[in-house]
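One-letter codes give the sequence; the fold follows as tokens. Both lines appear below.
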Amino acid sequence: MRASRRGPRGQSTVELALCMLVFITVVMFGIHFAEVGYLSLKVHEAAVSPLWDSTAFRVHRMREQEESIGDFGALSSIAPRVMANAGERYRDFDGRSSTAKPRPHMTQVFTRVEDMRVRCAQDDEVEFDLPRSRRPALRSPQPGNWGTFPPGQDVGNPTDSVLDGVYENLGGMSCSAEAHLEGLPTLPSRFLEGQGGFFEEKHSMRLRMKACGVGRAVGGTCKGRYGILLGDFGFSDPEVSGHCPLQPERPDVPCSENQAFYYAAMKVFDNNGRAAGRDASEFAEFFVGQSPIDESGFFMSYRGEEDDYIERDTPRGESQDEMDRPRNTGGVDHKPTPNRRRSNRCFLGMQEC
């Protein structure tokens, strides 16, 4: 008996149809999740952008006031300026143009983000770790250990800083951003599920969430923020770039053309307790009867290129130094023009030397 041949029943077509149901679902949600990640990065970008913008603004300047040198009056105005700028540029979630598009949202295939809000404020929790330590003082040596302060030595407080009065620890600023993220009706909420359906669970739920620039929302509130410490351009003004000739007979007398920088340097010198001792003065007084200078006095000298300042006296052998000649203060290739200021006292205070 001859067996009859069976006709094709379309098994491959059935398998393809079943696989496509799963494949299309995976593709749709893959696109949706990718859009959520991409749009969330735009919120993060809006929170970080004003921080970088803030670094272009002046934070403080040096004033010619001995007791109040650092002027930080401009610090409080930085956060409102960069916040307003970032809020306008990222209103359409595209910060590449300074002109925002008419509609304040960004729409993708299955996802939309809208209602961008950027917040920036001065933040004193972002602080500069100033070198806090005790003032330098003469210590009595101890074998195998750190030296100890002698009784009655003024060592200051542990919170003292050598920069107090020059660079105040006023912090910086912090920024955060948030937006409303939602799924669009283009992503079906029902697809072959339920009793007798292909899937047992519901296809999707309408996404409504708050996207934060930092971390995740807690109780519907974005609490994370980014911070940056500010404090540039304090010594870039013309009033702190003038020359300051050395005045060896006039300690603690500021130079007339650069008082702001002079007061700032002297303030740090004062905060350090000035001279830690008088050993050099006592040495000079013992041998010649007097000391040429006050060891606790403050002296500062600054000469820039505009002074064309070159030492007239050349150390022995320096003129023959071919490697460092371009950086020398003297030598055969130099023609000094200004005369070096001479003191009316010589080594160890001896007269007419």
Remarks:
- Residues 11-54 form the longest helix (44 residues).
- Residues 174 and 227 are 4 Å apart (CA to CA).
- DSSP finds four helices and nine strands in the chain.
